């Protein structure tokens, strides 16, 4: 980053700054003529100086130029003008004044919008430059840099800088060339002229607030987009190690560039709307002088208005600007922004940054990392000055499996990080053949080396997105995009130094993993997950996932067939009592009253949970169906029963979970409602009725068994379904997706679509038996792969928190395997698993990497015999032991390993 803010601004926006300044200078003649016109109107038209010689007409728009004496003198007539009467001259000059008002307003509008666009472009460039520096933070710098602070700097602290950039050069020039601005002060000298001014002001108060409503919406949209941008930047910073390991620099740059482009588009709309409103407001304010000159002058000619009064009105309306004050404010803003800019440059100091990450293709040949791995003079110091490795030297022929045996020390983990290029805090040299490992281009290292550490880092998104992260190093093909959108996006990228690539391009390298297309890639991912031990998890996640029937109609049809097959299986095997199916004509005793009334799945939040009881349309429907009073009475009974059951129980007791109507913190409120009801002799407040209504909506007779439902009530609930559906579809057609026995409900999970009912609470072990039946039908209809593919869409949550530690570790390992590295470094990645499972995974990795290199940190010697080479650390020295006989199968990989690992390109 440039140390000087003004140098940075001038370097990247010189052309745009000069263009705007040129327009500012070009506007000065128009501004000058607009100031001179009132004098001409008063002197020539109103006071009649143009008609003093008795001429009935005078020239209008007579343009001449007087030559200087040193050029010979004389007058050059450019245009002789039009001969008009006195009223014609008055109206002509007034209309000319109005024309210059419009022209000057257009100049101001264009200048302000261009300043805003210029500032936004520079803000986009600055944020992208800072994000590019984030990708260059060294592993050592990341230990001291707080991700939240860095994200705040990029999101918030550069915001005022971007706002100032458009004013940096243009504002002082603009203020310096215009010495007078408007000071709104109206001195009403005439009732009619005052009414005219009042009418214009009234119009302003009516129109302008309406136009500003859109600005408020865009402002909220901008705030949300900025917040999401900061969150994504923080995520990338927290997971920067994965970006380095998997060479995802270009993908992350393009992804952030896309977010910045969306934010730029929103802010551009704000600027256009903002300055349109401002220009319209200025136009309405300047419309008053037009009426003063035209109407007031007409009154003066008729003798009903004194010339002095008219001049006083016009003079009072003119304003005297305070340019000096605005220049002082500008200078104060400049100082504040410079301080913020200095803080930014200090945070992104050069010593924190690694080598420049180029988006271009590296010139060095991307060849496999095989041959002798030689370490010379490796020295690593501990945090307290002690030497972890001192004078370490070794040689290992790659490919090989290498066990880094820690024996309780940190040397093995440090060596693993050195081999994986996860640290630069060591001296000495590490070479593979004749290539220095640390000097390898980032693209080559990210392609050829993978690292699985003790704390796997996952990004928010689907499991699939995380698995193929290492395949997104560069775009390999373009998607169809309208030429207009593409040209606009590329033009803005060029002007702001952002990447030209789009995140809509084809980023996944199918060739690297040996896949033909997206479906083939999913099959490979599922196969790897099954082998790593996550097959059942992906299947269960698929059952909990959703499908879009419109996008995958063929699968939707097969799932409806599976639903019918499952129903037949239950009937033929005497298992009909396990699931009570949804039937439009029957009440489902295993479902809540709300589910029975809606007979569908809520999509909008206002129809979910307790918000349903507060929804006016829903309350109207059940009131028309005559259900409100009965449900409120049920709510009273539930409240009375629950307060008796829960009285004296501590929060967190199992009964609160079983009877999930009322939480422990809500008990006092419902007790107050019951006391008010008792004192009021049956009268309830509106808010009390709403609270009580929410309780029975969550009631399931088969589960809670309070005996509150009879046949009459269930029949009335079933009868109210049609009315509820009619009312809710009118209020919000997309608020609830209603059940259809012949269709898939996109809002319901796959498991619910297959069952199309609710598992019985009254049959022992029902859920396990139903799950087994579902699995059987899915395999019979060859739907297992489709279900697992849906499981790949499961969102892992922030930092993978929606997955267990074992699942996160499994996804991380498969992510490393997917990109087929020449060297895989495993440092604590198997820690979440128990000893037996860890042993199985180790053997699996050894099988996968029979033709590539595997470096694994082991706690002791017990499993080291399975590796080709054992690397031990003793008294700061590195000791290499080769296995006398290579592990079985090392010399020749099995067909399964060949299929998974493939050949290294």
Automatic annotation (TrEMBL):
Residues 68-329 form the ABC transmembrane type-1 domain. Residues 884-905 are annotated as: Disordered. Its main location: membrane. It comes from the Bacteria. SUPFAM superfamilies: ABC transporter transmembrane region, P-loop containing nucleoside triphosphate hydrolases. It is found in: Cell membrane. Pfam families: ABC_membrane. One of its GO terms (molecular function) is ATP binding. InterPro entries: ABC1_TM_dom, ABC1_TM_sf, P-loop_NTPase, Type_1_exporter. The keyword Transmembrane applies. Residues 893-905 have a biased composition (Basic and acidic residues). One of its GO terms (cellular component) is plasma membrane. It is a multi-pass membrane protein. Keywords: ATP-binding, Membrane, Nucleotide-binding, Transmembrane, Transmembrane helix. The keyword Glycoprotein does not apply. The chain crosses the membrane at residues 16-33, 87-111, 164-186, 192-211, 283-301. This is Putative ABC transport system ATP-binding protein. It comes from Microvirga flocculans. The lineage of its organism: Bacteria, Pseudomonadati, Pseudomonadota, Alphaproteobacteria, Hyphomicrobiales.
């Amino acid at each position: 980053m440039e140390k000087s803010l003004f140098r940075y601004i001038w370097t990247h926006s010189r052309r745009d700054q000069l263009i705007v300044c040129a327009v500012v200078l070009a506007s000065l003649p128009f501004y000058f003529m607009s100031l001179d016109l009132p004098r001409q109107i008063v002197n020539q038209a109103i006071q009649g100086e143009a008609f003093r010689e008795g001429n009935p007409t005078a020239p209008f728009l007579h343009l001449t130029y007087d030559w200087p004496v040193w050029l010979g003198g004389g007058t050059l007539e450019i245009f002789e003008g039009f001969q008009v009467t006195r009223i014609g001259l008055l109206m002509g000059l007034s209309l000319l004044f109005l024309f210059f008002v419009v022209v000057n307003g257009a100049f101001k509008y264009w200048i302000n919008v261009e300043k805003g666009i210029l500032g936004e472009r520079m803000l986009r460039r600055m944020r992208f430059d800072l994000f590019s520096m984030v990708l260059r933070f060294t592993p050592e710098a990341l230990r001291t840099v707080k991700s939240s602070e860095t994200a705040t700097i990029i999101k918030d602290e550069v915001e005022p800088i971007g706002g100032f950039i458009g004013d940096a050069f243009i504002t002082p020039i603009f203020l310096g060339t215009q010495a007078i601005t408007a000071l709104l002060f109206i001195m009403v000298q005439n009732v009619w002229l005052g009414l005219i001014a009042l009418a214009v002001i009234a119009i302003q108060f009516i129109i302008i607030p309406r136009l500003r409503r859109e600005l408020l919406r865009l402002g909220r949209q901008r705030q949300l987009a900025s917040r999401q941008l900061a969150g994504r930047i923080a995520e990338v910073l927290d997971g920067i190690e994965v970006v380095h390991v998997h060479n995802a620099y270009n993908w992350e740059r393009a992804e952030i560039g896309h977010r910045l482009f969306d934010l730029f588009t929103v802010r551009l709309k704000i600027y256009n709307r903002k300055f349109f409103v401002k220009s319209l407001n200025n136009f309405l304010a300047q419309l008053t002088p037009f009426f003063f000159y035209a109407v007031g002058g007409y009154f003066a000619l008729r003798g009903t208005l004194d010339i002095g009064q008219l001049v006083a009105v016009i003079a009072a309306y003119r304003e005297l600007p305070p340019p000096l004050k605005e220049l002082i404010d500008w200078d104060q803003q400049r100082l504040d922004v410079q301080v913020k800019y200095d803080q930014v440059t200090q945070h992104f100091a050069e010593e924190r940054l690694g080598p420049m990450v180029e988006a271009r293709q590296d010139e060095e040949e991307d060849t496999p990392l095989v041959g002798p791995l030689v370490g010379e003079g490796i020295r690593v110091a501990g945090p307290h000055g002690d030497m972890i490795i001192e004078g370490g030297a070794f040689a290992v022929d790659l490919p090989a499996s290498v066990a880094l045996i820690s024996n309780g020390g940190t040397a093995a983990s440090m060596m693993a990080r050195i081999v994986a290029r996860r640290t630069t805090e060591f001296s000495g040299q590490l070479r593979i053949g004749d290539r220095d490992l640390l000097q390898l281009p980032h693209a080559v290292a990210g392609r050829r080396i993978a690292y699985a550490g003790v704390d796997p880092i996952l990004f928010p998104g689907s499991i699939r997105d995380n698995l193929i992260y290492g395949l997104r190093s560069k775009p390999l093909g373009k998607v169809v995009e309208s030429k207009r959108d593409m040209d606009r996006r590329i033009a803005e990228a060029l002007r702001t130094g952002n990447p030209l690539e789009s995140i809509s391009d084809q980023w996944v390298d199918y060739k690297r993993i040996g896949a033909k297309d997206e479906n083939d890639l999913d099959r490979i991912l599922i196969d790897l997950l099954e082998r790593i031990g996550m097959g059942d998890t992906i299947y269960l996640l698929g059952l909990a996932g959703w499908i879009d029937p419109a996008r995958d109609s063929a699968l939707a049809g097969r799932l409806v067939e599976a639903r019918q097959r499952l129903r037949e299986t239950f009937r033929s095997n005497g298992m009909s009592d396990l699931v009570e199916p949804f039937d439009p004509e029957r009440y489902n005793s295993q479902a809540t009253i709300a589910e029975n009334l809606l007979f569908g799945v809520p999509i909008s939040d206002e129809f979910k949970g307790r918000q349903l009881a507060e929804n006016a349309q829903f309350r109207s429907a059940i009131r028309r169906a005559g259900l409100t009073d009965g449900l409120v009475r049920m709510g009273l009974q539930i409240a009375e029963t629950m307060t008796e059951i829960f009285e004296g129980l501590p929060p967190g007791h199992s009964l609160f979970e079983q009877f999930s109507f009322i939480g422990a913190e809500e008990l006092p409120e419902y007790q107050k409602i019951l006391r008010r009801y008792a004192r009021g002799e049956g009268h309830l407040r509106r808010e009390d009725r709403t609270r009580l209504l929410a309780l029975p909506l969550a009631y399931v007779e088969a589960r809670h068994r309070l005996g509150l439902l009879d046949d009459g009530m269930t029949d009335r609930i079933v009868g109210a379904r049609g009315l509820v559906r009619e009312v809710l579809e009118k209020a919000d057609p997309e608020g609830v997706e209603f059940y259809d026995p012949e269709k898939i409900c996109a809002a319901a999970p796959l498991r619910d679509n297959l069952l199309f009912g609710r598992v019985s609470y009254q049959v022992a072990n029902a859920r396990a038996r139903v799950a087994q039946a579902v699995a059987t039908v899915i395999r019979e209809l060859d739907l297992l792969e489709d279900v697992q593919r849906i499981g790949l869409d499961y969102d892992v949550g922030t930092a993978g928190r929606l997955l267990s530690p074992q699942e996160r570790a499994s996804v991380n390992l498969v992510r490393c395997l997917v990109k087929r590295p020449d060297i895989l470094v495993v440092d604590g990645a198997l820690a979440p698993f128990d000893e037996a499972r860890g042993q199985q995974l180790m053997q699996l990795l050894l099988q996968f990497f029979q033709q590539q290199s595997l470096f694994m940190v082991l706690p002791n010697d017990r499993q080291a015999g399975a590796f080709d080479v054992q690397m031990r650390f003793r008294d700061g020295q590195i000791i290499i032991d080769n296995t006398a006989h290579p592990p079985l199968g090392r010399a020749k990989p099995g067909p399964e390993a060949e299929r998974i690992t493939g050949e290294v390109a």
